[in-house]
Amino acid sequence: MTSPASPLAGRSAFYRDDELVIQSHPLLAGAAVPRFGDTVGWDLNDVVHKAPHHPRSALRVLLHDLPGRWNLLARELAMLWLNPGHPAVLAAGVHLRTDPLSAMTVTERVAQLRPLAAFGAERRLPADLCEWNDDDLKAYVVIRQQTCEPGTMCNVVHVIKALHRLRAALTGGGLARDPWPGRSPNAVANQPIVAPLRTPAIPPQTWFPLIRNCSTYINVFAADIARASAYCDDLQTRLVTDIGGDQRLNVWLADPATTVPMRRARPGESGGSVAHLSVIARIIGVGPTFFRPGKPHGQSRRDAVAGLIVDGRCHPGLLPDLAMVTRPDGSRGPWHDSLGPRQIAIEQVMLRNACFVFTAALSMMRESELRMITKDAVIDYYGCPAVRSVRQKLDLDLPVKHWWITEPVAHAIALAGQLSRHGELTFASVTGARAGEGFASIAAIVDFINHINRWRHFSGLEEIPDGKVTPHMFRRTMAMLTRDFPGSEIAVGMQLKHVATRALANRVTGSYMDTDPSWAQHLDTAISDRRFDRLTELFNADTSGQRIGYGPGADRLREAFSTVRAQAEQLRDTGQARRGDIRVEHDLLRRTRISIRFGKLNHCTMNDDDPAGAKCLEGAITPAGHRGPLLDRCQPARCANSIIATEHIPIWTAERSSLHRLLDSGTLAANHRRRIESELTEVDHVLTRTGR
Prior knowledge:
Blueprint: E1 41-43, E2 60-62, H1 68-82, H2 87-91, H3 103-111, H4 113-122, H5 134-145, H6 150-165, H7 185-188, H8 204-236, H9 245-254, E3 260-264, E4 273-275, H10 277-284, H11 298-310, E5 314-316, E6 324-326, E7 332-334, H12 341-363, H13 367-371, E8 378-381, E9 384-390, E10 400-404, H14 407-419, H15 441-459, H16 471-484, H17 499-505, H18 517-543, H19 552-573, H20 583-591, E11 603-604, E12 642-643, H21 649-664, H22 670-689
Parallel strand pairs: 3-5
Antiparallel strand pairs: 1-2, 3-4, 6-7, 8-9, 9-10, 11-12
Helix pairs in contact: 1-3, 5-6, 8-12, 12-14, 12-15, 12-16, 16-17, 19-20, 21-22
């Protein structure tokens, strides 16, 4: 993508044609850096770092279709953005931020000059930008707004403003005026500085079967795929000779343990499956033509193999002992009908895709961070498994970040690393046909879903409804679940210990945690069920004589429990319930309207319809339509609705010790001492209720 400078492009007053275009970014080993005089384009692939999930086109600054002055203008702007500290830029009095823009951002911005140049040619505007007027540029923006998203329009406006702001460092100058003085690109493009999150959550009817299917692939099918792959590799290494082949075939046929590997029938072949003769040839060590009908004895050899099939001595694919599954029609059988060499390659890709989806869904990592996971990235971090990640955008020496994960996710990452053909990356190509970073995240998700739905009649996996699923949507959905799902655990058909707690420890933009209508009913039901489970635990503890808490709220709760037990006993006395059946009390408890909210520092028993005694509401201005307590005004020490449970006491005790240590330090200012003494008084009130 290089050529000598075009005479139509002109010479730059600031840069030599032989100057390297990358002077401020870390270079990759063996980088061949383009020169400023290259007027066709600058290919920055293998020159600077590129995130694996970005295509190579993202790092190609295309210049070939920019005529004359526009070509020089594009190269000078790119040089400015890539090297803001260049001596010629500083000498021109242009001072940009110290950090250069990423190569991908520069590529996107330079691309905005192409439609601008076409607009000027169509309107027959002057070649000199200084002669353009504001109305021309405003008309251009109006036209682009009809087809572009607000985010793209911000880039469009930013480039136009840069033509004015950077004019002192542009040969021939730029725009004489800013068409929108005093207004930011976001304001011109009607794009808020913090745009509302438009990424939808994955609906529950898609989320749960998708995660369960991934888990089945990782924990059930993976072992068979690995065994079949190893067996296939072993067959490929065996010596092949037709000499003595019939004798070896007869020995193989006579072995009572022999079963015939089968494959899917091709078009024109009768039956649903046929003998996999190429595999059988490898097993007995003969050439691929050994069973050919036109060869002497070829048909008789086929007939001998067919005899075993007639006797039922056959199995699908290479292995006779695949994992058994229950299929949608209720039948039981192996999960794959023909796990042969070709299908192994397909299933390895699907297993890699399952690992990617599972990790994306349950780690809350961004796509760029997922794709940067290396094979040695899973470590122990503060006693928990974590993924070590480096944000390699412009500086390879940036601090390491850690994402907490669960053991199942760590297992998925390790499995993907074993499949990967890349030297370092975990999620990459898994076949020799496309070694390296050959992996598209969205395509991987779509292919995995389509593969499951196509073969679920045999694999026994759950059907996944049609709908868009992207890596970004996993992050959005998991962030929402960590906020709303009861107990901070995600039920995916198996026990994933503290998966939401680990994910919540990872940083995420607040808007990602906004609720989604598609999950409303599911979460409401789950939260209600979890609240009842915890209420039942308190009821059972109270029934067995254990103390369930301290304070007026605990007294009222015990009275409600006593009433439930009395009603249950009355039902038993009248013969309406069997004695010894605890479910009677639990059924009554579910029907009894007991208001309780479980918390980390205390439980609240405030009745929304009768909030008497709620300290949090005293003197407070309640928002319109609000029901329930104001949690940020909670006063556990003084509220009549508060319950201090036994699990809360260690937290309050530790807080009292901490406050005493601060007061004993002797280094507090008077106002800080008064504030801590006030906090200590509240803590003492709480612990006094518990007798401590």
